[in-house]
Amino acid sequence: MPELPEVETTKNGLIPAAENTKVSDLIVRCKALRWPIEKNLSILTKNQPIISIERRGKYLLFRLSNGTIIFHLGMSGHFKVCDKSVPLKKHDHIDIELSNGKILRYNDPRRFGACLWTEGDPLCHPLLVDIGPEPLSRAFNAGYLLKNCKNKKANIKAVIMNSKVVPGVGNIYASESLFLAKISPLTKACDLTENQASNLVKAIKSVLKKAIKQGGTTLKDFSGTDGKPGYFAQKLKVYGMAGHKCTACNSEIEKIVLQQRATYFCPNCQKATN
DNA sequence: ACATTGACCTGGGAGC
DNA sequence: TGCTCCCAGGTCAATG
Predict the structure, then answer these.
(1) What distances in angstroms separate CA A257 from CA A171, A212, A263, one per listed residue?
(2) Which residue numbers of A are catalytic?
(3) Mean pLDDT across the stretch A206-221?
(4) Tens digits of per-residue pLDDT, A118-147?
(5) What integer pLDDT is reported at residue A218 of this predicted model?
(6) pLDDT tens, position by position, A58-80
(7) How far is the CA of A30 from the C1' of B9 (A)?
(8) Strand B: which nucleotides have any atom within 7 A of a protein Cβ?
(9) Comparing C-alpha atoms, which of A204, A114, A202, A206 is closest to residue A167?
(10) Integer distance in angstroms from CA A88 to C1' B16?
């Protein structure tokens, strides 16, 4: 489910609920998500003020006064803001109860998500330390992308989905960005021209920004912290549109499989360069 | 160092 | 109705 816009939407929903509060209690109802959950998490976080809630790539950082809870939503994770009286649903794995009475409730059917505790700088955590610059920052630019494509034989779609190059671009937005930039997903990264790199960077930024404005993309599981879906699914040009007409040239959108992932593109607008 | 594949889970839909 | 199979927004770990 969640790529950068969905995580950003989640963060934006959590912040107003958690501002100027403390963790009054934290309840974990499963042993592990992707990784085991710190057994003492409840004790460690009790009565700790929430300093901030931040996003880095697809990770959510709950900075407390004595450490940080690092969340990743995996494929099916989502947060809901509610109060104690709301009955539990299946797969409600974690409740962060706040001193204002609200609960940040984490639900994750597939349990591919993560909930980790760190007392050091969370940006230096092994999972975060090697990830690339934020796609919406100036550090993510054509020169940077080109440098990271050099000598790489992998296709360009794999490269922009590699969080060590740039985090936050998942399977949906990779297809959408390549369509907008008119680059074939099959293009070898090392063959990317300066012009293409520039167009691709612009396309990624544009697609992500628009998706954030729409509250993300809901195909199935995702909802914002208010339970409402994201509306970017209605704006998708190629993802999930196999057999439909391209909005630019009227050709038929094709679906192929790359790195075992569904990949959608317009064979006419996104011609392979070799 | 890079590229590819399997693994982790559950649920929903298609097809029989 | 119920079974089996396939697919799904992520990404780490192991392999070549």
Answers:
(1) 11, 27, 6
(2) 2-3, 58, 261
(3) 91
(4) 999 999 999 999 999 999 999 999 999 999
(5) 87
(6) 999 999 999 999 999 999 999 99
(7) 13
(8) 2-6, 8-12
(9) A204
(10) 36
- Point out the nucleotide closest to A151 (alpha carbon to C1′): B2
Residue A33 carries which side chain, given as an amino acid letter? L
Q: Phi then psi for A217, rounded to 5 degrees?
A: -115, 125
Provide the 10 A C-beta neighbour count for residue A219: 13
Q: Is the pLDDT of residue A1 over 70?
A: no
Amino acid identity at A183: I
- Please check whether residue A45 is in contact with residue A26, taking contact to mean a CB–CB distance below 8 angstroms: yes
Give residues lining strand C (CB < 7 Å): A 1-3, 6, 34, 57-58, 72, 74-75, 110, 112, 127, 161, 163, 167, 170-172, 216-222, 230, 261-262
From the list A212, A267, A254, the residue with the least C-alpha distance to A235 is A212
The Å distance, CA of A258 to C1' of C13, is 20
